[in-house]
Inverse folding.
């Protein structure tokens, strides 16, 4: 009498084939994304705080470097109009670089915290900045001191020229800042999400 017991398909039969691990990984990530994906305003808020802090630190660093190098007197021999244009151009480029780096960092942090939907987390960081700007603008308008309030709250470098000089290109400058901040936040969100995907793939490859 045989004592062998038929256990049905063996364990080896249930093991994934060559493409089984990849399929299981994709299915698992898809289920997790379905449950935990989407824009997380809490994570985006902390990403926005990161972007703001990064902008403040970069601005302070650049100001210190400029003061140490004595850049304030670099253009002293140029005509006044040429000096204003040169300073305005350099300051505008520096401003855009600071905004790009700051919001990239913010989007990255938000996506690392949320794990999924990196683009949406980056967009959330940008939306927090828009909301904050609108709220500060409204409060400043009500208080009757809008310009001073914004200059204290935005944490971003300001162009070292007067309002009359920027009147013609002010709209272009604002549009460029809005676009660059959005692009930086979205790219940071993508970079933060890709980190988690690499971790997931490494876990399945090692299994």
């Amino acid at each position: 009498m045989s004592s062998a017991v038929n256990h049905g398909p063996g364990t080896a039969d249930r093991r994934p084939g060559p493409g089984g691990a990849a399929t299981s990984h994709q299915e698992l990530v898809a289920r997790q994304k379905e449950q935990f994906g989407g824009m997380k305003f809490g994570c985006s808020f902390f990403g926005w705080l990161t972007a703001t802090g990064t902008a403040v630190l970069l601005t302070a660093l650049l100001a210190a470097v400029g003061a140490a190098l004595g850049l304030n007197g670099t253009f002293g021999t140029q005509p006044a109009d040429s000096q204003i244009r040169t300073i305005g151009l350099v300051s505008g480029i520096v401003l855009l670089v600071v905004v790009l780096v700051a919001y990239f960092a913010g989007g990255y942090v938000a996506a690392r915290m949320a794990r999924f939907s990196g683009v949406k987390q980056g967009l959330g960081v940008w939306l927090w900045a828009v909301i904050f700007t609108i709220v500060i603008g409204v409060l400043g308008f009500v208080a009757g001191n809008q310009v001073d309030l914004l200059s204290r709250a935005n944490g971003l470098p300001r162009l070292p020229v007067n309002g009359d000089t920027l009147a013609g290109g002010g709209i272009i400058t604002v549009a460029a800042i809005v676009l660059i901040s959005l692009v930086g936040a979205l790219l940071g969100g993508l970079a933060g999400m890709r980190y988690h995907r690499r971790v997931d793939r490494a876990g399945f490859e090692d299994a």
Q: What stands out?
A: The CA atoms of residues 92 and 173 lie 8 Å apart.
